[in-house]
Design a protein that fits this description.
By secondary structure, the chain is an all-beta fold. The chain has strands at about 15-20, 30-35, 40-45, 50-55, 65-70, 70-75, 75-80.
Length: about 80
Amino acid sequence: MKTANKQTKLHVRKNDTVVVIAGNDKGKTGKVLKAYPQACRVIVEGVNIRKRHVRPSQSHPQGAIIEREFPIHASNVKKG
């Protein structure tokens, strides 16, 4: 992970359409939902979907297993 003091710049921004060029989701396209410049990672819509176990709460009274996107490294995407 990059240090907090160093400024980093990503080649993609939020709402850019990107193509995944490496990894399990290679070839998929999606919109960048969120970018983390310090960690050089981005969250792409419909890519790197994992299951997340959540505790019981008002929105999920019995708890649940939800699927959501997790970040991937910015070097694995290109603008498309």
